[in-house]
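INFO worker-7 received task bundle
INFO bundle size: 2
INFO processing item 0
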Amino acid sequence: VRGGRRSSVCLEGRWETVNKHKPWIETSYHGVITENTDVVLLDPPLVALDKDAPVPYAGRTHGGEICAFNIQGLESPFEAVVLNGTSGEGQLRARGLVDCESQKEYTFIIQAHDCGSGPGGAEGKKSHKAAVHIQVNDVNEFAPVFRESEYRAAVTEGKIYDNILQVEATDQDCSPQYSQICNYQITSARTPFAIDRNGNIRNTEKLSYDRQQQYEIQVTAWDCGQKRALRSVSVRIDVKPVCKPGWQGWNKRVDYEPGTGSKQLFPKMHLETCGGPLSSARTTVELQTGHIGKGCDRETYSEKSLQKLCGASSGSTDLLPAPSAATNWTASLVTDSGRDSELIFTFDGRQAAKIPDWVVPQNLTDHFTIATWMKHGPSHGLRAEKETLLCNSDKTEMNRHHYSLYVHNCRLVFLLRRDFTQVDTFRPAEFHWKLEQICDKEWHYYVINVEFPVVTLYVDGVTYDPYLVTDDWPIHPSQIDVQLTVGACWQGGEVKKPRFTQYFRGSLAGLTIRPGKIESQKVISCLQACKEGLDINSLESLDKSIKFHFNPAQSILVMEGEDLENMNAAVRKVSYINSRQFPTPGARRLRISTSVQCFGEDTCITIPDIDAVVMVLQPSEPRITISGAERLTRPESDFGAAGGIALFQDLHIISTVTRADAAAARQTGETRPRQPEVLEEIIHNLDYCDILVLGEELGPEEESLQVRRGALLGKHLDATNSTSGMSVYGVDSMSSYEQVIRQVRYYHRRPAHLTERRFRLTCSELNGRYTSNELNLEVSVLHGSEPGEHVGHAIAPPQYMQVRRPSVVHDLYAGHSSAVPSAATVVIVMCIAALVVVVVLGIYRIHLTHQQEIRLEETAKEAGTSWDDSALTITVNPMEEPRAEEEAGSDEEDEDEEDEEEDDEITSAESDYSEEEVDIQLPKVERQSRKGQNWDKARISY
């Protein structure tokens, strides 16, 4: 067919279309789709044309029809569908929902395909490639959101600001219409502020600090599609008074929880200069602790324990110990009981103490040390008298001072007179120091090291040489006894009535003398070291331009810098630290003083000083609990055996604190709940455990308390004993005290004369600040004539194995309780068996008793011993078999026993240095004429 759109041929009586032409589409398309819909509006519409005319009613697919539109690019989220194959109409659709916020535009290629010519003709043909550009229309689906959760600003009273601060909101919509913020609004009513379209806030009237110091307003925002922010934002505006130079942002009180380490004092503090240009600043932070104990929070262990803890040389004598039955010379002195159990003695010019002769250190050679804590102020009156701390003078006849330490006109003077027996030459005798510390009414630690003729004074660990040394002749030898006194000097001669003179006015603590050795500076520093002070957090982050300096006690910190911001950052790092486990509660005063220099100005701003306090909270007080047997019964043979009997073999020492269960309190939901108490076991050190003899004191010839040599080795512990008991002291763990006290043994040479003994054990921490309960132990003797001696141990345990614990400790040691079977059955059986021979044995025992009394009287006369048998009571045991031969030789055995005991003592003394596990008897002292002065204060040396 010529001139037609399509050509067709007749094959076997049928007409077939020949596909000669390609489909035709536009070269480019532009489309628009709204997000969250699937139909694309194209311009021009999607239509494909084909010149191959279709044959109606052909029954086959013809090349003039459009079968498909193909999109090139698998990532494109669109697809094209044929709406009418004959007319070539098509439609572009989204395969899924499109999001403008993810992608605003798409570009891809589209191509049309016709349907081909059938089985015998050519394949389907493709149109040319056309570009499709699609734009995604936005929907206002997001509301404005503010960039900050809260805004803050500060203004000065009495000023009108054009702009105080700016708030800003954003919108996630993709189009400018919906993503831009078109309006801000203050929603709070009646506020003196306004806001513009850009979020700038200003005040509409002058603000007054006295009327209102802070404003809080709410601001909301709208986008250009009129969608409002879901949440308003809070804007806080602080009103500051008219600028005054000084430190701002600090709290007057800082609470310190014990055991929390270092705590920043001023974490938000900064220096306000009111715009003044500063060239440099100098800030001094001072921690004032003069009212706390001995100048600051120090360990309040006993002096001997603290010396042991610091590694001081052994052999020191404490001249001002805690008053007790054994150390009663300090009982008449006035002590300061309000200083966290620190032992401080106050002298007002009327008190003094004589040191007993058995305490006085002997043979002070050319090397010795005197140490003391002293707090002293200026003397009153025009003519100041000598104030004696320590004096060793003639007891009678004359008034010579052998050595003394005194204060005169705020000068510290040490007098040391030598004897003619040493060197008969003019020698240094008086050493003078003039220091501000002597009269500043503050606590200081003084140590005098004597290496004759050199004498060195340490004050708070810093050495000072005497500014004046006076020579004198030695003292003529005499047989006059000397008297050592504290708080005054004893004038025994040259007066009608011996008396004290040159009284001291001030406070003393820890006065000790150590003969034969001088103390090292390391030990001196340890003994006077403070446990609290100032610190700097993150020292490595401190700017290098900041110069800082601590005093030795770390109670004063000085910082200097040229940059104000660096100085502010440095002050914010200043911290307080207290390393004591149980610090002294109460307030510590803080003072911060600052001086600044300005650029090119003669007058500069003045920064006022600020005062604050560090409040150390009350620590959880420990409860020291000791538990063990309360009754102990042993055969008399055990008491006289080598080493005696162990008194506290099952001792247990624990410490607990009571804490409130905060978690349980929160679960109740009450405003002020009743908080249940929870016992929590803690670990800390002890410094004393005393074993006191109750009733009559120990007889030094017959009985004693002993401890093994190896028990003290490797521990920071020492021990002393006397007829009043034994004291184990030193700063060490509770387990170390347990190990030592478990090995304390009681020995009696003549247990037959002993019926019972009672002892009391107490332990303490921090020089008696925390004291344990009292554990009373009653020791009974099981004599050979008692029936209990014949009870078989396999059948019934001996009576001394019965342990009765205090009820207060039973809950803590429930696992240690044990049931003791009764021996009554065995005793009854033996009694019934013995009844058969009661009559015979009774008659025979009466005869033997008469014979024994005759022998005792004869033996007593031969030995020169006067027996007092007025109260002698002889108990006849009908169950005991007669042992005539043993009784006949009892007197000779008694004499042999005494000889053997003397031999045993010699053997034990000789073997003390050969075997470590041999029981030793600690040094004992003879009983003094004054009751209670019988403690041997010399520590045991091995």
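INFO item 0 finished
INFO processing item 1
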Amino acid sequence: MTEEVVRRMLEMVNDKFPCTGSPPTADFPVLAVAMEVGCLPVELWRVILAYLPLPDLGRCCQVCRSWRELVLSLDNTRWRQLCLRCPECRHPNWPSQPEQEPPSWREALKLHTMVTRTWTQNGPDHQASACLHLFKRRKNRRVWHVGPGCEYETVRGALGMVGPYDRLVLHPGVYEEPAEIFLKVPVELVGLGSLGEVSLLVCMEQQCPTARLCNLVFMPPWFSTVVYKTSWGHVQLDNCNFEGAQLQVRGPGTCQARFCSFSQGSSVHLAGVVLSLFDSCDFSGSDTASITVEGPLVSERNWACKYLAALVRNFPCDLSVNKPLRHTGLQAQVTADPEVHGDKKADSKIEVWQGRNDAAGQCTVIEDRCSDGEKSLEEEDREKIKKSVTLNYKIQCDQHGLSHLLKPASDGSLPVASTPEPPSVTLELLTLQQELDRDPEALRFVTSVLGCIVRRSLFRDGKGGVYLSNYAQARLEDNIFRGLNYGVRCIQNSVIVMLRNEVCKCRASGVFLRLSAQGFIAENDIHSNGEAGLDIRKGANPIIVCNKIHSGLRSGVVVLGNGKGSVRSNRIYNNKEAGVYILFGGNPVVSGNHISQGLAAGIAINENGRGIIVENVIKENQWGGVDIRRGGDPILRNNYICNGYSDGVVVGERGRGLIEGNHVYCNKGCGVWVMSSSLPQLLGNFITHNCMYGLAVFCRKDMENIEAREGNWNGQEWIGRDEIGVEEEGREEQENMHEERELFAWENDEDSEDEHNSSSRSVSVALVENNCLSYNGAVGLYVKSSEPLNVFANMVNNNRGTGIGVLQSCQLTRLVTNCILKNGRGGVTVEKDCRVELRGNGVYDNSNHGIHFLGNGQIVENDVIGNGGCGIQVAGNIDVKLLRNRVQPCQGCGVSVSGPVKGAVRDNQLFQGHPGHKNNLLLADPANDTCVIRNNSIFTHDSSCASAPAWILKNPLPRPLPSSMAGLSSSQYPSRLGNSVTNRISATVESGCHGGSVFCCIL
């Protein structure tokens, strides 16, 4: 019954649409009524239509709108069968995802049919009139059969007789030719039967404008590994296998390969090719690179370039999407990334901060000798002191120069310096579309790159994926690189565009760029590689945006040897070494990335590395969030460095750099760890809510271990490992020697170094200026240094320990115009043998002594008000000057001088804390004749006059003063305005750990 219905239906359709003409688009009421009145359900009509072949389905699709919808509804049945049964077409998602269904089987078959006809499109274009295509002469094609018992038994014999555009159908068998075959006319070679039944052991050279090879297996003959080559025509390869053979195309020749397999050492070699397309191909077991592209694009183009360009023009329509815009400030809400965090909670920063009390309460603070005096006050005494002092008697000091850091904003939100809770917000990533909107030049760059186009292909289990050299160009989209020595290698001024590829499990680096290579690498998944995910060297300057770079056995991104690049809006996580590693003159721009969960530092700048590190989120890394050592000299600005399992920022031996405007919070170690041999500039950072010190400056020169440290540094073992390993596995000796020379040529590269030095200013003293050190678990600023240090205009408040503790300072430490406020112990503690200058500071409301001073130096023009113990306590065999300070203690002396103190106490103003305050405001040892005490003013409350006005700090106002801070930063200390000068790289590289906190480790 069904076959009869189909037969009658086809007769009706053929009456209306004869095979000789194209059917019109009008509806036909007779057929529509037959379909509606025939009482057949839609499901049965689908069964009937499923019997039709492809030409009949096309005719039925144009009967009427109802029939068209029915035909289109057969996508997962009949259209799927037609697509998979086509001998020239494999699964649309072969070879990378054959288990995944395409969006539409009908569209996949339509695209395949259109693409397979590209090779016949050559010929003159008729542009004089739109109707001339009706008179275009059609190509007369004949079909010839080749094989035993057919018209021709050999391929060579058939090619000598065929006409232009004829089809040679090769019957199953093996065809071997003892000499090279030349294709002199356009021809189509098609294998009959399943793929693998027709094998060619030939070497073909195309000398005609176009040719097509389909459903064939190519194997190399005895005299050459090249099985097909062309230097000016276009070749189209559909559903072919290459086994141990090479495909060679030279410009202006072009190639289009679809659903082809290159195995057993097969490869593709392109030289100067303007445009070639490899779509849905499988490359496996390569002895060299699977695809080698070399040479600049030739100026001449053949006829196929126009059609190939139309096939690849889909950028930027296929952009990924909708991710939230990253805001510039603390108002952007953080979003949890399940791919990065796994089962971790989004509020892990709160958990870290809640656990800081335990860390601070135990003996985790290194050498916490910041004793707040000879005897610390007990907790109950402090409570009594707080109750005994009222606001009626305490001098008001709320209008000091840094008070704006403590005042609520206009919307009522509390600033970072005054909120006891850690920040709960951070920056978000930009999408690729947003990045391109911000950088139109990058979009123009991407759309201009042609050369070799590789799409939806699989590269596996071989030496290399794609290799570019000598000004070559390539574009890789939606490919998989797996189990190779390297995925992509781009050198010698070549240009690469990589979009939405997966590069994984490579034995060396996943993507390698060097020798002034350029590229645009976006939305790739680069993971689980043996070396770096991306390796950038020797002047390479790619744009790396919106990628996932994770789970590497070493670093995520490595930039060295004067490499550059822009690394933006990437997720870099779970790498065993640094997320971004910059060394040997590397100078990238790293901005807007999320760098997290690394087993080492988030960003490491070492061995004279540089770089601009801006607006990144660096969190949950095992070692320091940012680690700067051995001449590293970056600009670190406006980053969020948080929730680390060690220190936030580590500036190791000989580290430099400008560290400005960063938020460093909720780290289990210190906020910032600085070695005294380093010369960083810390400006305007918020260092808060860390479990240990806010900022620690330590002395770890380890001179006795220099000999042990000299020699091989661990990093040297792998700097060229991926490159050397790759070169040794098949590249010729001469090329290998050439690349080895290039690898170390950066040692003599003067241009980039001179450019850097010309814009730098020498720094001789480490600078800490305009920072906020608040709510840290131990001392706010901890100094144990053998080098000079300048500490200017910082807010140090609400730390659990002392505000500023100086335990060792062989050279002068200057504490100028700082505000030390409400710290859990004393304000400032200076131990024996230290050289310290305190000038213009405000020391307010600390729980113990305002200033406890056992060293040498000056205490000049400070305001020490409302502290729980003495205002200023000076003791020991020291030389100190106390000049023009204003002091009001809560309990204890205003100024206490005990022991054989040398120096002078002059022109100070001492205010009584409250009427019940019985201690002497100025207490000095009567036996001391070496300290000059004169011209000090003592103010006490008049108990007989209850209405006496409160004392006010004026002439000048409460310190620190805004005018003095501006003067310091702009003129007196100009070193903050520039980066430091980096030294040339020496031949000997030190090794070993150069110190750090209990959590800090060398990379």
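INFO item 1 finished
INFO post-check item 1: The mean pLDDT is 79.
INFO post-check item 1: The radius of gyration is 38 Å.
INFO worker-7 idle
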